[in-house]
């Protein structure tokens, strides 16, 4: 059977929630749906699409490999729907009352929601229009004027932007519980990490860039990846499925580590930290609202939040 009409975005959001929260009940609560209704909605999607989405057992519910792909694609659809909604809302506002922000995936998924919540409490807060991409795409959006302010997780910015450090992120090596590394008694060294085919983010992402530069400081290059994927969720799901070890932000794997679906592998002698940076176009003065948002990110008082 094939889908004869557009899938319900609420059900796609629910399926993504199952991957993020680890159960239908938790996902249903997150989207404000009763669990029986959520279960029926997912079963209808399975029947209509002909794609098996969930593996159900007495121990709970997990996504099938096919569902992991649907979740990855679904995130893009939901992000596009959010952009559509934000853009339609912005049609009635003027440029002066909007702040265009671009953010890399890790920042957008795990950090920016809290930053924006703090920003909206400020007296001069304006509407924020968000664009999400990898670090290279975010920098390009700033340079080309599509974004007033960007947030990336890399030190290697290229020309055309100025930056300010706003925090630090840490990458971690993770494996499925059944992987041999989950039982290691000693940390990985740089050579072993570099020589292993990993599941990694795509070229241009801050996560991939940070890993490559961390190993380059040891005169090592990253091995040909087992898979290179375009989102944190896709990398995380591949690692949980046992495809290969993965390297991701600690923010992206925290829930999976807490639930035991992934195991953290210690690494010795490799600095996997990376800076979080705000960027804006060199030679252009960002709008006042950009300074206010940066102040919220840094916890400054509103009067100290100017960007220069």
Automatic annotation (TrEMBL):
List the PROSITE patterns.
HTH_LYSR (PS50931)
The lineage, from the top, is: Bacteria, Bacillati, Actinomycetota, Actinomycetes, Micrococcales
Q: Which domain of life is it from?
A: Bacteria
The GO molecular function terms of this record are: DNA-binding transcription factor activity; transcription cis-regulatory region binding
* The HTH lysR-type domain, residue ranges: 7-64
Q: What name does the UniProt record give this protein?
A: LysR family transcriptional regulator
UniProt cross-references to InterPro entries, sorted A to Z = LysR_HTH_N (IPR000847), LysR_subst-bd (IPR005119), WH-like_DNA-bd_sf (IPR036388), WH_DNA-bd_sf (IPR036390)
Q: Which UniProt keywords apply?
A: DNA-binding, Transcription, Transcription regulation
Its family? Belongs to the LysR transcriptional regulatory family.
